[in-house]
Amino acid sequence: MKATYYGQSCVEFDFNGTKVLLDPFITYNELAKDIDVNALRPDYIFLSHCHQDHVADLTAVQKNSGATVAAIVETAAWVRRQGIAEEQVIEYNFGGTLQLPFGRVKMVYALHTSSTPEGEYAGVPVGYVFFIGDKKIYFAGDTGLTMEMKLLEDLALDWAFLPIGGHYTMDVDDAVKAAQFINCKNIVGVHYNTFPPIAIDTEAAIKTFEAHGLKLYLPAVGAELAL
Predict the structure, then answer these.
(1) Residues of the chain with pLDDT under 70
(2) Residue 47: CB partners within 8 Å, gap ≥ 6?
(3) What is the domain partition of the chain in residue ranges?
(4) Which CATH number fits domain 2-226: 3.90.180.10, 3.60.15.10, 1.20.120.1200, 3.40.50.2300?
(5) Largest Cα span, the chain
(6) pLDDT in tens, 146-184
(7) Which residues does residue 22 pair with via DSSP β-bridges, in sequence order?
(8) Which of 21, 27, 64, 165 is at 20 to 30 A from 39, Cα to Cα?
(9) Single pTM value for the model
(10) Which GO terms label this protein's molecular function in UniProt (predicted)?
């Protein structure tokens, strides 16, 4: 299994041949200018919420790939309004777990806001836990530090994708606390350096995690990471 980082919070998992794309935002990201969004062919797309920097390329990628899109109920309604067929959209909610051909995906809490690119209500943001064989991977989405993360402590997570840019989400120090809350030592940082408010010192961030016995991975845009 592997993950490919496409900038901001856009990650594509390859779960033993099934491709799962999270939060497609590439075209409008200057850091991802070398990525050909039209070449992406995921089998599934999961949305953490409906802000523009997480859904901007949804319709293009879905049209090219025919991917099934999964999201919380109100965001899923917006997805259908983009012309994506009912049978290609899965709506669910907190506490729900999807049983899919590649594994299970549980929807979990995230502390943030959510609206459509048009400024309309889009439900609330979410995170996901992917159960793939004996591996467990947490994609936190956009979130602040929250005590609900402690509910994941006993899952024995192998990997966690956490926002670290601050301003709109957790910063580095809070992400360290989050890693401790969820009891996960392998952290992949997302949602940083795309815009000035979320620019960070990446070397300092890595050292901060190391000081707490944690490993922070910051793959370059377009780079792959073995899971």
Answers:
(1) none
(2) 22, 23, 54, 55, 58, 69, 70, 71, 75, 79
(3) 2-226
(4) 3.60.15.10
(5) 48
(6) 999 999 999 999 999 999 999 999 999 999 999 999 999
(7) 11, 46
(8) 165
(9) 0.98
(10) hydrolase activity
